[in-house]
Amino acid sequence: MIELKGLKFLQTLQPKILFFTFGASLLPIFILSITAWRLMKQPLIELEKTRLDDQILAFKGYTAATEKGLKNLISSYTNWTDLYNAVQTDNRVWIDKEVSEQLLFSTDIDVVKVIHLPYEKIISEAGSKKILNLPIIQEKIKSLNNKNNFSQELIDTGSQGLVLLGISPIYQSDGTGKSSGNLIAGQLMDKGWLRQFLNYSQPTTRLEIVSLKGKLIVSSSSDWKPDIWEKAYFPSMIIPNIYQKRSVYRIQPELGLNTIYAPINSGNQPIAIVKLQIVAKYFQEAKQTLTYLILLGLSLAVFLSVLTANLLAQQISYPIIKLAKRSQTLAEGDLNSPIPNIKNGGEIGQLANAYQEMANSLKTLINNLEQRVAERTQELELARQNLEERVQERTIELSRKNQELEIKTEQLYTALNDLKMAQLQLIQTEKMSSLGQMVAGIAHEINNPINFIYANLTHVKNYTEDLFSLISRYQQCYPDPDIQTYAEKIELDYLIKDFPQIITSMDTGANRIQEIVLSLRNFSRHDEAEIKQVNIHEGIDSTLLLLQHRLNPDGDRPVIQIIKEYDNLPLIECYSRQLNQVFMHVLVNAIDALEFQQEQLNKKIIIQTKNILNSIIVRIIDNGIGIEDKNITKIFDPFFTTKSVGRGTGLGLSVSYQIIKRHQGNIKIVSQFNQKTEVIIELPYLLQKY
């Protein structure tokens, strides 16, 4: 691999020689080019500044010509007897046709205004209303209106651009008499005005007029935007020089553009800035000439480099490449072929002799190594066989112990789960057994006295009616003032009216207590056999009756609506008390979920039953807080709960799951978090006997 890399290096020796000689030839050319450019740069900059100054002088001459042309045009109309007489006689039609329209349509004038003195009455007004109505234009007209000779001023109107405004008094053709009024004319220095100047300037010139605040007034092109340099140096460099009536030069040979910023004056004060940009002509020509020289030098350097590289290759690289190829075959194991260039003199001949001696030494060394490698290989083969046997025996032993450990682990895990479930069932069975006995005893103890009360309420009602009838007859037969006074004191009329209502309320309360006692007996089923055919609806209704206090509204808690959608179900075999326990756990969880969902105002629990083939389906649906997806797989685990400490033990659904499985049924929970939870219970008609 080392010899191969060396051969590749030698094969690239000739291009490297070529590159070296090319670089050595190119260095003087670059030094001469840089020196020539530095010597030429400053004179070129001065030439470009002179070109920019010539363009600014041409622009100022064009501006002066515009001002003079406006003056001559206004003067030709103001020394006109017909216009003088029309102003005196207020002949507006003639002025509009012969003066205003002629100026607008046959010249570059944009606004015309004729005023009758001394009352400054406007006789004619034509052109751009936007310009005429500007406050700054009206103010300038007012200030120039009182002068007796021609006046003009360049105005920056802001939104409408630069306007050259001229005003002159109107006289007769011979110049005699008093002025009858003033003629005002204005020309907008817009894009068309700039393009007329560019027609006589260099074709590559770009012209812009910018306000003293840096905003564009008019541009000869439509793609204007201030560059980064102009934004940075406008307030700190350009504006101070403009106010001192000096130009600012920006020479950019790298972009091939030259720019000048010069003031536009109105009177003796700058009113705007002209930005003129031309192609860097001298820089471009110098750059092109220098490029030709560099290309010529490069061509000469390439020719000399190729010639030198070939001469050096014939003397150095070709013999070395032959020797390198032989060293490669030597590395591949060919120790018998002759070494080339061995009879040559010089350093290459000495190197070839050294290679020949190395080949002889390598041949002897390889023979010795082959013998030692064969001996060592035999020893390693024996050691490998012994190691494989030991590894195989150890692997078999570890595999057997691993299987035994897995079996014991599985047995322990199963035993632990069975122990937990047995403990859970034992605790719940004992609790529900004690609760059932207590509920049955309470129901029995309440039932006897309430039956006594309920049975005697009818007699109490009849006796009361008889007594009230007797009192009425006494009042009719023996009207005594003292008795009448006492009757009023105890409000006898109200007692006669209210007492039957009290008896009715007691009768209603007794009926209610009897219903609660019946529900307690149905819930506990303590007076029935362990396995019996029962009506599932009675168990659900009894559970709802016991939970009625949590369904009714209490303070800020709204009522929980119970919607029953019962199907026609047959009696089913079951452990009724255990099923009632399941319904109790599920309904309590539904009520808790509705209480946690504070945003839900329409709280409801839907209980659906359905008769299918050989089994029934009970669905209990609430629109409470729901169950998160991460908890849905753990809800039947013992002691798992999402309720706060003291509110839930985590045993209700686990016990319910075991009870449903004992009844050879299925229980499933489907939930959407913050929307609803649905508990689906499936039970067979008859329990299979095993």
From TrEMBL:
<keyword id="KW-1133">Transmembrane helix</keyword>
<dbReference type="InterPro" id="IPR036890">
    <property type="entry name" value="HATPase_C_sf"/>
</dbReference>
<feature type="transmembrane region" description="Helical">
    <location>
        <begin position="290"/>
        <end position="313"/>
    </location>
</feature>
<dbReference type="Pfam" id="PF00672">
    <property type="entry name" value="HAMP"/>
</dbReference>
<dbReference type="Pfam" id="PF05228">
    <property type="entry name" value="CHASE4"/>
</dbReference>
<dbReference type="InterPro" id="IPR005467">
    <property type="entry name" value="His_kinase_dom"/>
</dbReference>
<keyword id="KW-0902">Two-component regulatory system</keyword>
<feature type="transmembrane region" description="Helical">
    <location>
        <begin position="17"/>
        <end position="39"/>
    </location>
</feature>
<dbReference type="GO" id="GO:0016020">
    <property type="term" value="C:membrane"/>
</dbReference>
<keyword id="KW-0808">Transferase</keyword>
<keyword id="KW-0472">Membrane</keyword>
<keyword id="KW-0175">Coiled coil</keyword>
<dbReference type="Pfam" id="PF02518">
    <property type="entry name" value="HATPase_c"/>
</dbReference>
<feature type="domain" description="HAMP">
    <location>
        <begin position="314"/>
        <end position="367"/>
    </location>
</feature>
<dbReference type="InterPro" id="IPR003660">
    <property type="entry name" value="HAMP_dom"/>
</dbReference>
<dbReference type="InterPro" id="IPR003594">
    <property type="entry name" value="HATPase_dom"/>
</dbReference>
<dbReference type="InterPro" id="IPR003661">
    <property type="entry name" value="HisK_dim/P_dom"/>
</dbReference>
<feature type="coiled-coil region">
    <location>
        <begin position="352"/>
        <end position="408"/>
    </location>
</feature>
<keyword id="KW-0418">Kinase</keyword>
<dbReference type="InterPro" id="IPR004358">
    <property type="entry name" value="Sig_transdc_His_kin-like_C"/>
</dbReference>
<keyword id="KW-0597">Phosphoprotein</keyword>
<dbReference type="InterPro" id="IPR036097">
    <property type="entry name" value="HisK_dim/P_sf"/>
</dbReference>
<protein>
    <recommendedName>
        <fullName>histidine kinase</fullName>
        <ecNumber>2.7.13.3</ecNumber>
    </recommendedName>
</protein>
<feature type="domain" description="Histidine kinase">
    <location>
        <begin position="441"/>
        <end position="687"/>
    </location>
</feature>
<keyword id="KW-0812">Transmembrane</keyword>
<dbReference type="InterPro" id="IPR007892">
    <property type="entry name" value="CHASE4"/>
</dbReference>
<dbReference type="GO" id="GO:0000155">
    <property type="term" value="F:phosphorelay sensor kinase activity"/>
</dbReference>
